[in-house]
Structures are given as structure tokens and as C-alpha cells.
Amino acid sequence: MAAKVISGKQVAEEIRGELKQKVAELKEKGIVPGLGVVLVGEDPASVSYVTSKAKGCEEIGLYEETIRLPADATEEEVLKTVDGLNKDPKISGILVQLPLPDHISVDRVIGYISPEKDVDGFHPVNLGKLLRGEPCPLPCTPHGVKQLLVRSGNDPAGKHVVVCGRSNIVGKPLAAILMQKAEGANAVVTVVHTGAKDISYYTKQADILVAAMGRPNAITADMVNEGTVVIDVGVNRVPDSSKKSGFRLAGDVDYEPVAEKASYITPVPGGVGPMTVTMLLYNTVEAAIWLNQS
Amino acid sequence: MPANLIKGDEVAESVRTEIVKELGRIYDETGLTPGLAVVLVGQNPASLSYVTNKEKQSKKLGFYSEVRRLPEDISQDDLFEVIEELNEDEKIHGFMVQLPLPDHLDERVILNAIDPEKDIDGTHPINMGKLFSDEEGFIACTAHSILHMIEHTTQPVYGKSAVLIGRSNIVGKPLALILLRRNASVTLCHSKTVGLADICREADILVAAAGQTGLVKGDWIKPGAIVIDVGVTQVGDRLVGDVDFDQAKEVASWISPVPGGVGPITITMLMWNALQAFKKHLES
After folding, report:
1. Please, what sign has the CA dihedral across residues B118, B148, B199, B229?
2. Looking at chain B, which residue has its C-alpha nearest residue A190?
3. How many CB atoms lie within 10 A of CB B191?
4. What is the pTM of this model?
5. CA distance linking residue A137 with residue A236, whole number of Å
């Protein structure tokens, strides 16, 4: 059996279409959602992310502002910038692009963002609400995974989801989202990681398998049962001399052989990737609505 | 061979000893005593008995202790005011609101009004959120008690498979993150999970917190597993757990009884959190 491909590009487009309409409706009421991005330094991956976020905003009609600070900016300066955005009525969502330079405390900066404008969903108050099952902005990548599942007809309710990887930005929040007694969740969730002796012991039990370890080809065909839904969150740069850049992007899943066994699978690129920015846009629009109500 | 018992009293006693020692040391250095308060709304008999136990234990350990007894029909605004007072009160370093609250009060809004630095119950969203990262916050007392019980067995957690039945805000959800941080693989399920028995059979550490008597049978347990029974259901004049104890003790390596397991520790963990709140206050 060859797996059906879940196209993140397509699902993202669908959601952006919905957002565009919502933004148009908001504009008629005089509300323009705005995203403020803080970029410290010039890490090429970060610069490219920030650019695609700005493009996404333009596409669906959001106001966008990127504040660039030099790599040697002090923590004080970053906090001051965040504070400015907290107070700026044009801004409904704030995103501080990670990673930050070593001399700046990520926890302190994230904790400084007004929780109502925390569209990345990483402020401790929002993570706590997420765990408690209260309304809050959901972290973008895990939210994107949920949307991919639900919109491809693979509702996680009652399913056994095995999440490989327990990062703060994917594994843990995804587990927290899918374990809730809520629509599009209600799954049995297992989180495994490099601490486990035999990861395949767990992956073979999965109805839905999410690979988020950040290691190319970590999930091989022998680790996957027939009919599993496979979501690949990994984005790894693998050396490839045939490419001009010298590398290609690969996921955590050994794609071709796994696709032979899976019922559904997401490709890399074009799977989870496009969803992350889209869910950020989603959170920004939701934040604007929320801020306007309160 | 029957399992070793994880006795709540023993675990609690070792934590209490440490608390008394710390309080003594701090008093000698600073002359200061930490204060702890409990807010009780109404006369729910179970709540009354909890609150009395908390008051007794906190005094015995050497805390300054207060109980704010409020009428059943107190308005949300008036309760807010009490919480605001305690947030500001310099004698009080940590406090908690005894649950459940009467129906006319919005539990979520009330709990979120507690200063996170004084939230010794560990249920404010900020403290729950800190479980995701390595930031230090307060850990919900029941989840924290279970961690102590597991540690009491001196069996390694690293690389083990932990299965948690029940996804409450005070047990399953926080415990999942706590055990992940200690490098266990964690599965969170609930009483209605399809194939629950099979999932449980794979657990090196099984935590039953479903509130369903006799849910976990002996043949659900992996030989040699650690079994923690968090269920407390009143059946006649007895308290009964979620695990069929007589069967389970023949299979498990360690097991906690009901009563006498998790119960006696939770209050002690509240005191532990109050001590941490006090220490943080002294540092700042």
C-alpha cells in the first residue's frame, strides 16, 4: 500500500484562504491585526523564517513590522523592544525569533511578552493554560500538526499517538494538545525520546506517529506498522553535492520505504513546514479579535 | 514474592524531617518564620477535615498558620478581596484555596488570581507552564507526592516506560511532564481508553488516578512494575483505590496501598512548597 500524501502546502493554503476572509471582515470593523517580529542578529535560517512570516502577513492582509537588533544587543534592549510592542496598539501579536544570542535569557524575554500578544504560545502562562485545557494561543508547529491530522480526515480522538521527541517547541506541547478532552484531540499520547532503550517498541504501537527528533532517517520502515499515519516534523540539512547550496532538506522519516507502509504521510519539505507560519498568522488574527473584545 | 509497600507515612516523614531541619536552620540565621494560609469556603465535610489536617501539620512543623473560613454564599468579588489581601500579606508566604468551591464561584478565575509566587498548590497556569521548561516553579502537590514515592523505591526512572491513567490537572498532566524531564517514556491515557489493559501491561511505572475502584487488575501489571494507586473512593466506611491490591501485590515489585499511600504525603508536599516559597522570598 502506498500512503496518501498529506500536503501541508495545500492545507496551509486552505487555512490562509479562511484567514484572508476573516481579516477582510475585521477590516470592515476597523480592526487590522498586526504582527511585530523581533530579530536579533543575522542568523541566515532566522532571517529566512522572518522573511516568510512577513510574506505570509502581506498575503492575508496583516500589518507587519520587523524590528532588527544587532547580535550584540543587550538583554535590556531586547526587553525594551518587546515592551514597546506590548504597548503598541497596531500590534496584536509579538514574535521573538529564536534562537537568541547566548548572552540573552530566552525565558526572561518570552516571559516579558504580554500573554495576550504571545502568538508563539510559549509564555509560561499560555503553556500552563494549554496544559489545563483553557483557551490560549497554541504553539504554532504542534497546532499545525493537529490541523494536518484533522483536515486530512485523521481525527486523533481515541487513537494512540506516539510522539518521538520531547522538545519544548514541538513534542511536549503537541502531547499537551492531543491529550486534552477536546475536539480534535482526546488521544492516548505516548512521548518517547532518546532516553528509551528501544524506540521502535513504541512506534510500532502508533496509530499516528509524529517524528520530531531532529535526526535524518531516524524513523525507518521496520519501525512502522502497516496503516500508520506518519507526520514528519523534522527539518534537517543533509549534505548534497548536486545542489547549488550544497545541502537538501530531509525529515526525520526515511520517506520512500515508510510511505510504502503508512496510510498517510507528510513530505519534507511541503508537510509541516508551511503550517508553522500559517498557524502564526492564525494566532495573530485570533489575538486581534481577543484584544478587541477585552 | 509479594511487592514491597510504598508507605505514604514513611515518605512523608522523611520530607517532614527535612522541612523541620530547614526551618530551624533559617530561623537560626534570620529569626524568621514562614507563614502559610488556607482559604476555606463553606462547610464541605471532606474539605473541613483536609483543612484541619493542614492547619495541625503546619503548626507542628513550625509554620505560622492561618485559616480563612468564609461563608458558603460569599460573592466572587469578596473572595477576590481575600485573595488580594493574602497576595499582599507579608506574614503569608504561600497559600491555597481549598477546592471544590461552591458552584456560583468561578474556580478558574479565582485560582488565576493567586500570586504565582505564593501558589503553593502549584496550579496557577504560570507554575503549570514552567513544567514545560526547566524553569523552577511550584509543582502540584499530588503529582509531586507521586514523584517522591517513585524516588522512594530507589529504582531508576531513566529510560523506563511510565503509564498514567487519568488526565487531571493535578495528577496526570503535570506528572507526565515531570516524568518526561526525568527521562521516562510517558503514556497518558484514561479510564475509557480502548485497549487500556494492554497499554498498562507495558508499564514499568503504572500510576492509576482514574477514581474507579478495582479498575486495574492483577493481570494488567507487568511483573516487577512499580504501581502507584492514587484513586480514593469511599465505599461504605472504607477508602478504596483504583488497583485491585490483593492481585497486584503478587505481581508488582513496589505498590502503594489505599489508604496510607499517596494521601498522607500531599499535605506534606504543600508544606514543602510553602518552605520553597519562603526561601524564594528570602532570596529576593
Report:
1. negative
2. B187
3. 15
4. 0.95
5. 27
Q: Which of B284, B282, B274 is nearest to B35 (CA)?
A: B274
Beta strands in A41-83 (DSSP E): 63-69
**Is there a domain that residue B21 lies in?**
no
Between strands B64-70 and B185-189, the pairing is unpaired
Amino acid at A13: E
The amino acid at B104:
H
* Residues A147 and A262 grouped into a single domain: yes
A88 assigned to active site: no
Q: Which residues of B touch A (CB under 8 A)?
A: 108, 123-133, 135, 137, 158-159, 161, 167, 169, 173-174, 176-177, 180, 183-189, 193-195, 199
Rounded to the nearest 10 degrees, what angle do helices A8-28 and A273-293 cross at?
20
Domain assignment present for A36: yes
CATH number at residue A181: 3.40.50.720
A132, A191, A195 member nearest B169 (Cβ) = A132
Domain, as residue range, for A260: 140-272
C-alpha cell at B21: 531541619
The closest of A106, A73, A205, A132 to B170, measured between CA atoms, is A132
Domain that holds residue B40: 31-115
Catalytic residue among B54, B160, B222, B249: B54
- Residue B83: which CATH number? 3.40.50.10860
**Residues B57, B118, B119, B121: which is the catalytic one?**
B121
CB nearest to B129's CB, from A128, A160, A175: A128
Task: Choose the closest CB to B185 out of A129, A134, A196.
Answer: A196
Q: What is the pLDDT along chain A (294 residues), one digit of tens a residue?
A: 689 999 999 999 999 999 999 999 999 999 999 999 999 999 988 999 999 999 999 999 999 999 999 999 999 999 999 999 999 999 999 999 999 999 999 999 999 999 999 999 999 999 999 999 999 999 999 999 999 999 999 999 999 999 999 999 999 999 999 999 999 999 999 999 988 989 999 999 999 999 999 999 999 999 999 999 999 999 999 999 999 989 999 999 999 999 999 999 999 999 999 999 999 999 999 999 999 987
A53 is catalytic: yes
Which chain A residues in 85-144 lie under 8 Å from chain B, judged by CB atoms? 107, 123-134
Last-in-domain residue among A84, A116, A148: A116
Query: Cβ A193–B125 below 8 Å, yes or no?
Result: no
Cβ contacts of B208 within 8 Å, gap of 6 or more: B165, B166, B215, B216, B227, B228, B229, B230, B231, B241, B242, B243
- Which of these is catalytic: A118, A120, A207, A232? A120
